[in-house]
TrEMBL record:
InterPro entries with a match to the protein in the record: ATPase_NBD, ROK, ROK_cs, WH-like_DNA-bd_sf, WH_DNA-bd_sf
Family matches, as CDD domains: ASKHA_ATPase_ROK_CYANR
Residues annotated as transmembrane: none
Any matching Pfam family: HTH_24
PROSITE patterns attached to this UniProt entry: ROK
Name used for this protein in its record: ROK family protein
Family, per entry: Belongs to the ROK (NagC/XylR) family.
PANTHER family per record: BIFUNCTIONAL UDP-N-ACETYLGLUCOSAMINE 2-EPIMERASE_N-ACETYLMANNOSAMINE KINASE, ROK (REPRESSOR, ORF, KINASE) FAMILY
Source domain of life: Bacteria
């Protein structure tokens, strides 16, 4: 497989260059004056940072879109040339691999899904290599190089080391995934927790743009939470910040796979809901899709299970709001398919449990397919490329 060359590196690895580029990427087009104001840098520092980025083609000056600043002469805005580079992103589930090819602005150009023949690293890695090879072939049609690959995996991930410490859905422990995939593909690889990757995408390109403090809560196979505090995605000293899925919300509740009882994940995950619907109704629903269909048919027991899950999610979100005081909580994940069955319970439980001004936190839903999670992985590759 082709590998990146020095020509495929970010042209100015200085803090100011990375900061200005990120500012224009997330908020642009911007005049130099506006970029300086948003980044908290002097106009001279911005001019020095912008020049090599324009020369390398990563920033473009829109001479035809002239605007006049509050004072001084007219100024041309600068914007990121999204077509200057491509990035690949992969999201691994227990059953399939979802891959996307995005441009530098993280817009999806190509999306692919392939099943996994098994869950061991020896079974997954060849599928990863084949899918990346396919995405690189697609990139040739655009005539642009792929400059990085991001991989998003559920569980405990050490992004700095590129190691999956533990992934419950793949049953992996201490897999040096970044190094293995770099060797197989020749691309720089960033590996991160899937919810944190999604949070990066929301921070740079989605509903978190411009917010210094927000959270992403995902519901579905598991319950996850990505945190942005003072403008930075937080992973914590040990890489597990935001694990609200294992916050107890039901005293003496059902057992959780973590060994505790009454965890949010043991009440509100897809598997927990499916199990509880079987117990309450006596109907042998096979999975979350069947459980949801039964509830939508008006089965009172099934609907009560979803209501209980909504209350638990609301209390979990209130815990995040009480501890960190985010401006916004974005709820996402495949579990949002049932949002109409527990939206009211989420909001009521949140309002009851949020303390004081924490109740002012905005709750916003954002249904996202797994392709968007793969896009989050690509966002982490873009982030690594820029050096942020």
């Amino acid at each position: 497989m082709p590998s990146t060359s020095p020509a495929g590196t970010f042209p100015a690895h200085t803090p100011a260059a990375s900061q200005i580029f990120t500012t224009v990427l997330t908020h642009g087009p911007l005049t130099r004056q506006e970029a300086a104001r948003r980044a908290g840098l002097s106009p001279a520092a911005v001019t020095k940072a912008v020049r090599p980025l324009i020369e390398a083609g990563f920033l473009v000056e829109d001479a035809g879109a002239e605007v006049r600043p509050a004072v001084g002469r007219p100024a041309n805005p600068v914007r990121v040339d999204g077509g200057r580079a491509l990035f690949a992103g992969l999201k691994a589930t227990g059953d399939e691999l979802i891959g996307v090819l995005t441009d530098l602005c993280c817009r999806i150009r190509v999306a692919r899904r392939v099943p996994l023949p098994g869950r061991t690293p020896s079974e997954v890695l060849p599928v990863v290599a084949d899918l990346v090879r396919e995405l690189l072939t697609e990139a040739e049609g655009f005539g642009v190089r792929v400059l990085g690959l991001g991989i998003a995996v559920a569980g405990d991930v050490d992004r700095t080391a590129g190691t999956v410490r533990r992934s419950p859905f793949l049953d992996w422990r201490d897999v040096p995934l970044a190094g293995l995939v770099e060797e197989a593909t020749g691309l720089p690889v960033t590996v991160d927790n899937d919810v944190r990757a999604l949070t990066v995408a929301e921070q740079w390109f989605g509903d978190g743009v411009g917010l210094a403090d927000f959270a992403v809560v995902t519901v579905g196979a598991g319950i996850g939470c990505g945190l942005v505090v003072h403008g930075r995605v937080v992973s914590g000293a040990h890489g597990v910040a935001g694990e609200i899925g294992h916050v107890p919300v039901v005293p003496d509740g059902p057992p959780c796979h973590c060994g505790d009882r009454g965890c949010l994940e043991a009440v509100a995950s897809d598997a927990a809901i499916t199990t509880r619907v079987r117990e309450v109704t006596g109907v042998p629903v096979a999975d979350a899709t069947d459980a949801l269909a039964l509830a939508r048919q008006g089965n009172a027991g099934a609907r009560a299970v979803y209501a209980r899950a909504g209350e638990a999610i609301g209390r979990g979100i209130a815990t995040v709001a009480n501890l960190l005081g985010p401006e916004r909580v974005i709820i996402s994940g495949e579990g949002l398919a049932a949002y109409d069955l527990f939206a009211g319970q989420i909001r009521d439980a949140f309002t009851a449990a949020a303390f004081g001004s924490a109740a002012r936190c905005e709750i916003r839903t954002r249904p996202l397919p797994f392709e968007e999670w793969a896009r989050g992985a690509a966002a982490t590759a873009i982030q690594s490329f820029v050096g942020r």
